Amino acid sequence: MSLTRQEHVFLEKKIGRKPTPAELQIVAAEWSEHCSYKSSKKHLKILPRKGTRVISGQGYDSGVLDVGDGYVVTVHIESHNHPSAVEPYGGAATGVGGVIRDILSAGTRPIAILDGLRFGNIEKDSHARWLFKNAVRGIADYGNCLGIPTVGGEIEFDECFTNYALVDVAAIGFGKKEKLVKNRVDKDDFVVLVGGSTGRDGIGGSQFASDTLESENRSAVQIPDPFIEKLVIEAILEARNQSCIKAMKDLGGGGLSCAISETADALSVGIELDVARIHTREPGMSPSELMVSESQERMLVITDRYKLSILKQICEKYRVPYSVIGKVKEDRIMQVKVETNTIANLPSNVVANAPLLDRPALKPKYLKRLERIKKPNTPKDMSEILLRMLENPNIASKIWVYGQYDHEVGIRTVVKPGQGASVLRLDNGKFLSVKIDGNSKHCYVNPRQGAMGCFEEACRNVVCTGASPIGMVDHLQFGDPEDPEIFWTFKESLEGLTEFAKYFEIPCVGGKVSFYNETDDGPIKPTPLIGVLGLIEKKPLHPQKIGSGDMLVIVGETKDELGGSEYYEYTHNLIGGTCPSVDLKASKANMQAILDLIGSGLVNCAHDCSKGGLAVAVSKMCMTNEVGCVITMEKIPAQKLKDDEILFSESHSRYLISVSPKNIKKIKDLLEQKGITSEVIGKFVGSSLVFKKTTKTIIHLRVDKAQKKWLSSLGLLVAHG
Amino acid sequence: MKAVKVGVIVFPGSNCDRDMHHVLSDVFKLDTELVWHTQELPKNLDAVVLPGGFSYGDRLRAGVIAAHSPVISDIKKMAEKGMPILGVCNGFQILVEAGLLPGALLKNTSLNFMCKWTEIIVKNNKTPFTNKFKLNQRIPISIANGEGRYYADKETLKSLRKNNQIVFTYCEEINGSSNNIAGICNKAGNVVGMMPHPERAAEPIINPKNSKPASMIFDSLLNNLGVAQ
After folding, report:
1. Could you say which of A330, A354, A378 is where a domain stops?
2. Of A228, A322, A259, which is closest to residue A102 (Cα–Cα)?
3. Most CB atoms within 10 A, among A3, A276, B146, B217?
4. Are B197 and A405 within 8 A, CB to CB?
């Protein structure tokens, strides 16, 4: 894995000579797809990035949002797919570590982690179970040890991830605006490498991640050490408090090569460093290895001569190793030396800016085939079908997973995992609601609408806690971008997200693109993952216990949109059809209506409809509250649909709310005034979930029986694997 | 109000230190100081809390390295003098490893880290941290640990019972702990260790059930220290 012929020519032209071997290694790491975004960068410009709350500063690795009263929230998302597919424990753990350091590098304390996990079919595939189990353990061991709560996430199983894994981690930070690292440096400032020692792990990791996964390259996988990371976090935050940090960057993909070149480029300076000064884990490492090693738990700090001794004292207090490896220069050259011997001397803007590509895009042929499917027959026993759906690993409770994550540490977690978006309290009395969502099954059938749907789903979840969306992060994961059909799906997804973001004026404050998610069996389905942050000024909607006698109201229309649905795939083994699409106008109106209703205190509990549709959403409300519900199916606002379609269509912009009978008139009036499609469709009563149509009972399911299956399904699968 | 001061000990890897500090100082308005483990224990302390976390990354065995920290010898002296000392989660593990409390904490029977809400029952209401409770009163509380299974041999369990050293038990079989023990004290009763996290349960906004009982653990301390409420 190295530079292409064209890139070679480009590099020689730029520097006017042949590069040295060390220079080639440095440039190859930085110009990998993983670090350079050479395929996607031109396209990513379309996403809206500005907003009233967005604070943009040079050199930030995370998005920064102003939440008022002098406080900021930071957010970032990353994946660690290739490493996790080879070594799930270490791959997932170091995925957590990497994104945490991005939050830290802005000068904010990490306060929450969310993770999105994707594996093959764990019901059939024991390797997928092994990957799943160990990735969860990796995240748990790392996050728990750091004392950063893992407050939420989402999990999807699909055969397209066979022998592979998508491990996405989003992290949230919080801090004072005045304490943000300014990223301004001066000539002769010191460049200090703080944290774990540099070893031979993760050599060439970013190039490894920029190719399809064909063989297991274990040396490219990094080794996790959460204890060092914890000490680094505390040392860095103390150094921040004592104003020791003029600029900071974490070491991730591409190691020192990327950190140095990107810092120098972003700050318009040069950096001179001596690799012989780096504290190493093993002797005899070559200068190139030192430059591209992706050993974890390392931060690059730039400080001045007045503060260097304080920084050293702080590192010594926490026993965090450090080495002063270089100095800032004015000439914008990245100069790498071994003692007095220069081995690389490159303009930092050349290293940090790979030549960008124009990849061809072509609408994939498979889409035509997916549109032409024959609708399945409606099964007879819908109660049995619903019970099976609740056991479906994609829908089953994820308590086996989040029960292993410390989601309480930090004592901010107001709304706990397991019920949509999680809510954290902030020091200024406000609340932050966070959710990540993805749906590869929808995106496969329709990359544009699928991506918009993921975005809306994350918004819906946040809105159900009473929060208004203030920012989003995206993680766009696809196969080989050199395949025009795959590249088309990337562009479509991106355009869908852009359209939604612009319509709702939700700025994109960070993101990442991950290509080459392929194995010998082919590419993954398009998997954009969207994280949405919402802010609550007063009090969040704490889901209240649904009382017997409460009414069930649906907001939004149910449509014939079962393409890519759990029902089609899980029950009928059918992939295709019409995927749910987002009607932007209705989406906005419904969202605002829900926020207004929650704000007026008329709602006891709000839940969105997503995977598994209306039937699954009502089931979840019943199982969580241990109460039955009787639903009159004719009341459900829908086009002319068959029973199974009404129950399991995954149409967007739908919300279920439970309302006390005394408030039902007010709610109906408010929704009617706004012209919102809505209806009272049922009543919470008894101990069974009943769907009725005229006098016929379509579904009758005992809630305790359903709850048992729903809660235990995932744990049992894993225990037997 | 009598001026009293509580120290929260911070080891490398402690991660509930700031949470405990927040609850003691912001919720219960106690003068609270974070004390780094190599520091000498401040002379004017009236009580000490060892918070939860992963001191030394749980290497070797949870709490065993921290139990050899410089500050521990000071804590042992204070324990002998009768000062109220509370160890929560990793703090409990450290007290056990330091020999201030009997028994051991083993891996949970699930072999997994467990984070969940449960209830514990007050079995000794004479300690500095339980004097406001009625016997057998229940406390909704959060647990979060991987090595939280309390173990002691038969003889030790017998003497724990005999000396009224069992302070809290779980209301359910949760992780394989001997006699469902969730917390114990030393013979004198001034040193208490517990696996559940009272600092996560003492504020209504983050307690999904009822925060009043857990807050009585801190009220008991205030009561013991003679602070008017």
Report:
1. A354
2. A259
3. B217
4. no
B73 touches chain A (CB under 8 A): no
Sign of CA dihedral B186, B83, A145, B61: negative
CA A578 vs. chain centroid, Å, equals 26
Contacts of A412 in chain B (CB under 8 A): 206
CA–CA dist A459, A43 (Å, integer): 24
Q: What is the ipTM of this complex?
A: 0.96
Q: How far apart are CA B101 and CA B94, in angstroms?
A: 9
Q: Average the pLDDT over A682-706 and give the result.
A: 96
Regarding whether A659 and A582 lie in a shared domain, the answer is yes
Distance CA A327, CA A300 (A): 12
Same domain, A389 and A257: no
A34 is catalytic: yes
Give the pLDDT of residue A209. Answer: 65
Nearest CA in chain A to B22: A411
Name the residue facing B116 among A141, A146, A403 (closest C-beta).
Answer: A403
Q: How would DSSP label each residue in A665-708?
A: HHHHHHHHHTT--EEEEEEE-SSEEEEEETTEEEEEEEHHHHHH
| Contact list, B59 vs chain A (CB under 8 Å) | 227
Residue A495, CB-side half-sphere exposure with 13 Å CA sphere: 10
For residues A474 and A457, give the distance between their C-alpha atoms in angstroms, rounded to a whole number.
Answer: 13
Residue A619 contacts residue A706 (beta carbons within 8 Å)? yes
Say if A32 falls within a structural domain: no
Task: Evaluate if pTM is beyond 0.90.
Answer: yes
Name every chain B residue with its beta carbon within 8 A of the beta carbon of A415.
none
Structural domains of chain B, ranges and CATH numbers in brackets:
5-224 (3.40.50.880)
One-letter amino acid at A33 equals: E
Rounded distance between C-alpha atoms, residue A276 and residue A253, angstroms: 21
How high is the mean pLDDT of chain A? 94
